[in-house]
């Protein structure tokens, strides 16, 4: 089942891709945060996994948005996002969880998108009071070495569509396919990366990636770091990983 709610003829600056499955509890707030943006003509691409709750009814109630949606079974979140990428028409792609919220800074950062070979990103804040340490992990610029240590918050990033002519989400990684993609993109010299200290997203810290495990990614991550970032960063990463393991600290793998 699929539908186009609105199909404006003007060029689409940004496509927001959302994977849903029985997301009725949160989706209305998510879509309302998009509708409230001063940036207009945002395309919203929703790939639904065959919801049986009121998810579709909520989608249909937002006739003021340019929404393209499809509901069918899929092989998980990243399979849905890959499908959304193929449907998206925007110059830049942004990925949002149905339990996340856009802040006014989203439109402020979108106004700075000019170079279609640059990955732009801002900051995010957690839904819940998880303390300053979490905020610091999610914010600020990411060098290759910092990205080797910590996963950048996916919801802060505006990817030029050109990124997805080379990369897609690896379905072998059930939780951290976004981390895998960002390691590859950050290591790719074809794309510049530019950070603005603008908070764009209210991020749900109890989402899928924070409560599930991805042992395969953790096993293969060192090889991904070496291949994308080179030996110097790889060796620094492995040394830091060893020290963290000895101290048994969290938020690093």
Describe this structure in words.
Strand 2 (14-20), helix 1 (27-35) and strand 3 form a beta-alpha-beta unit. The mean pLDDT is 90. The chain has a single domain (2-212), classed as Spore Coat Polysaccharide Biosynthesis Protein SpsA, Chain A (Alpha-Beta Complex), CATH 3.90.550.10. The chain has 10 helices and 9 strands. The protein is α/β, with parallel strands linked by helices. It has helices at 27-35, 55-61, 77-87, 105-110, 132-138, 144-149, 177-186, 208-211, 215-229, 231-247, and strands spanning 2-4, 14-20, 43-48, 66-71, 92-95, 101-102, 118-126, 157-160, 192-203. The protein is globular.
Instruction: Please report the distance between the alpha carbons of the first and last residues.
Output: 40 Å
Overall geometry: globular
Number of strands: 9
Strand content: 15-25%
CATH architecture descriptor name: Alpha-Beta Complex
- Rg, alpha carbons: 18 Å
What is the C-level CATH assignment?
Alpha Beta
Task: Give the helix/strand class.
Answer: alpha/beta
Q: Roughly what percent helix?
A: 25-40%
Query: What's the helix count?
Result: 10
- CATH-level-4 superfamily name: Spore Coat Polysaccharide Biosynthesis Protein SpsA, Chain A
- The name of the CATH topology is Spore Coat Polysaccharide Biosynthesis Protein SpsA, Chain A
> What is the total domain count?
1
Question: How would you write the strand order of the largest sheet?
Answer: 1-4-3-2-5-8-7-9-6
């Amino acid at each position: 089942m699929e539908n186009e709610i609105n199909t404006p003829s003007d060029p689409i600056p940004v496509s927001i891709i959302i994977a849903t499955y029985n997301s009725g509890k949160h989706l209305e707030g998510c879509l309302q945060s998009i509708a409230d943006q001063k940036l207009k003509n945002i395309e919203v691409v929703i790939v639904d996994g065959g919801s049986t709750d009121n998810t579709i009814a909520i989608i249909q109630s937002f006739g003021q948005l340019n929404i393209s949606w499809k509901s069918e079974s899929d092989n998980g979140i990243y399979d849905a996002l890959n499908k959304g990428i193929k449907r998206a028409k925007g110059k830049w792609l942004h990925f949002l969880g149905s339990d996340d919220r856009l802040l006014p800074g989203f439109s402020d950062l979108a106004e700075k998108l000019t170079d279609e070979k640059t990955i732009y990103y801002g900051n995010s804040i957690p839904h819940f009071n998880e303390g300053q340490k979490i905020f610091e992990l999610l914010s600020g610029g990411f060098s290759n070495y910092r990205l080797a240590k910590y996963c950048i918050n996916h919801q802060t990033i505006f990817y030029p569509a050109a990124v997805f002519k080379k990369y897609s989400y690896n379905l072998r990684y059930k939780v951290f396919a976004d981390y895998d993609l960002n390691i590859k993109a950050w290591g790719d010299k074809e794309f510049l990366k530019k950070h603005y200290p603008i908070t764009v997203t209210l991020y749900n810290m109890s989402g899928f990636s924070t409560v599930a495990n991805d042992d395969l990614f953790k096993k293969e991550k060192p090889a991904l770091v070496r291949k994308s970032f080179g030996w110097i960063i790889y060796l620094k990463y492995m040394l830091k990983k060893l020290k963290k393991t000895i101290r048994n600290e969290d938020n690093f793998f």
